[in-house]
């Protein structure tokens, strides 16, 4: 966190000043470790084994916050008798379909709801990264469930959890992760001791944690611990997802993703959602509890914002204009499609995939096979010059004179040269003023898209083609100002906030959203940011002039709520769990919820409220159901649907690992998204042969001194000089083993690429003893590329493309490689070196090793 | 008014001594290295605000330090020290003569070489943002022949670049090796403690940029109190190695305007353990020189007088 989020780290330092104990888990000792009370070196990709060990420690010692767990989680809910666990399936849950490599989730459901809740065909959910839609809410589940409040029923979630993690012992943590047992126990003890009624503990991760083939399940494991310990919805608790700078949260809320619409409404699928009603029902899921019951209002208001007067109840608010998904349109599928000549044009905005995305060579080869490419950035980045300066030019794979892609480079305005909002990790929107005019032809993204849309509409004006109606009917009337006709960012914020169509009055809450076409809302979760016509995101009252929640600094979605699910900060009767951790509570005299924050609950619904039988939507949420966006109002220890690779996290080895999975016959995540393509070779892992060809584990991350793919830091002298060269960090032991000299050169080889780097020998990397072997890990920064003041080979070139099944994020934080002293070969020799490694490793380009590595699947599948 | 007897050595408030009437309180830096995260925001903010040129694109291999030292082109420098945890910090008694002691000095070998993985679970990475000390007794200022170096009303020491003639006397005079000549223009450059910002009531750029309040700016008296309290807290929390450096008005430079909380000996961070203002002995030397001249004159006189007799 100190490395990648130094500004946010001030609050960790502040917590330390107040006596908090800080543990840091990382494959190498970083600037965060330097300030932590305890550092746990971990083998990259084994976090579920570690956190699963903590779950077992909690359950075995009965250290869970029982009252919280019973009332607020699904611990007592009884699961279908058809469910079987990975403990019985050698790494597989029930319902695996080897044909598609996905699960049929019926057997995972709560008892009595088999087949009625799960979507069944998760192969399509995987293609559309459907897990992403759960960012703001839980997956679908029936509201009414059978429970055993004694937690003794063998099929209640609590008992299933206990059995599932029973083998995640401190000994196994040491064996799998390389973390000494004493260190593990120190962590487990501190975490549990600092949780409960009087105390809360927080789990913090940065986005590197998600970049694994089991990335979503990492976070799920953290969520299970935090629910068991009663750390959710309470001050000082929670899971702090440190998202990318500076508005990655904003770019999922108002998405730059292929499968989402604003406010986590899913992009419709051509086959599943032919009509508006079918689409809306797939979101609100009639019969389910919770706030998604109002999905129709949010959806209609969004379409109304898009198409204004043209959108009427009679034409389903122009639902037909919305693009439809037809399959996997994720960024990696697109790159392979580019290589295969299926994509002709591409826009790159503030993104540098030639350096920043996994498998840089595939990215560059793909972009070199387009008709046109538009790059908008502050500097001429690698993704704009790969056709003349990229490494493939040296190897002869790209010939500048013959490269067919026409690249349009358009200079962009930086964040200080335009106005708008950032949405940071706490869902806090903060308004930025423009500090200086952008230089030369540099323009804001807002300017670019507004005028692009305006020109397209001008060119299409008068068209009678039905396909042009979506563009021509758009509301595209933002006021502009200045010599360059810059659109007003505040007018966009007003539209995002939403307004009453008849009067133009800005809405103050998404509760005002209507499904009858009388409201237009650009992003329903942001409603309130422009309440009363005031830019609430621009509020800057100092924290010294208000209480510690600082509700008047910026504006947080939803409804300026700073902690989600904060009803859980009070006990089932509505009283604070403790004076010390008082946050939101029920005021019996006034008969309303009150507190320091905006209560995440219907204001006047008493704790004693019990829904009438058959109630759904918000009416179905009981007075003691704090998780109001979940279909059953409960925090999910066990996820009966929504997570495609299992209702519980399970340790699988990374796709590339030198180690056989010590827990199960199944080696890696069997549901991961694999792309068998000639460019996408994968290093062999046990039980395949030849894994010793790539004996070392490598991981990459950020340096404080550089920013992502380096486009904003390697180009700027005061930053570039602070980390002026690409390097690889190795332990003294590995340096001896491979003959590497401090400040000398080394090159690293995978089945995709070979890159070179200067060597830093450092104690911050430690060999780990794993399963009676010594595992060496090396670390590289991923910032370097071939443009800018300081250059170097790109670490991301080493990775292949293997994705998490839930959100289609790439596994780009762990892989295997070989490390050799000296510089890498040049020209064709470089390709020959990689080809030689492929041959020695038995890799056939275009073929994938089977995902299933245990015999038990066929039997289990046949029996079910 | 008689000059302060401590004008060249000993405790002193430098601004009034330099002739300022109604000088504002002396301002300075307290750099608490126990919360430094080595982000180098101070280095960048300093360069940006003061227009300091690039100091080179070299990978130095000194941990994450690619700045190397305080120079004419680096007025803040974050030192990174990778070291095994000293035995006494771990709580184990240090037996007399039990093998070589770790002195914290950078070795010629890469760190950790020769030790096994089993022995190396604990490790320390120290970071410290170094800066001009703005000494109470600033030798650079004392030796400057042009008056380019001057004492500000805030008690800080600043070079006026338009008067500096590049003689370089200040460079050899500085006991910390801070002030430095810029290669391409020959003049001496160093931290101004953002004199231009101070005058406008603003915080120096580095302190403003520091995310963890490792660099604190304020009236020196207040900072000294705050630092003493911080050391006491750290001692209470089991960090006995925390200590202050440059805070003592009775030290060899009369105390620094920029002082530090360190977690090891000053040498470990590349700081001199006992700096002394190089002009301390100036009165004594003038006295000796004067005596010698008198003696010479007397001897000459005696020779003439004797000769005539």
From TrEMBL, chain B:
Q: Protein name, please? A: Ferredoxin
The biological processes this protein is annotated with in GO are: cellular respiration; formate oxidation
Residues holding [4Fe-4S] cluster 4: 144, 164, 167, 170
Give the cofactor note.
Binds 4 [4Fe-4S] clusters per subunit.
Q: Which keywords, in A-to-Z order, does the entry hold? A: 4Fe-4S, Iron, Iron-sulfur, Metal-binding, Repeat
Residues forming the 4Fe-4S ferredoxin-type domain are: 27-57, 123-154, 155-184
Keyword Chloroplast in the entry? The reply is: no
Region Disordered: what ranges? 1-20
| Protein source organism | Micromonospora arborensis
State its cofactor: [4Fe-4S] cluster
List, alphabetically, the InterPro entries matched: 4Fe4S_Fe-S-bd (IPR017896), 4Fe4S_Fe_S_CS (IPR017900), FDH_Electron_Transfer_Unit (IPR051555), Formate_DH_Fe-S_su (IPR014603)
- Gene3D superfamilies (UniProt xref): 3.30.70.20
Residues bound to [4Fe-4S] cluster 2 are: 46, 191, 194, 206
**Chain sites annotated for binding [4Fe-4S] cluster 1:** 36, 39, 42, 210
Protein's cellular compartments: Cell envelope
Q: Does the keyword DNA-binding apply?
A: no
GO CC annotations on file: cell envelope
An example of a GO molecular function for this protein is: 4 iron, 4 sulfur cluster binding
Quote the record's binding site residues for [4Fe-4S] cluster 3. Answer: 132, 135, 140, 174
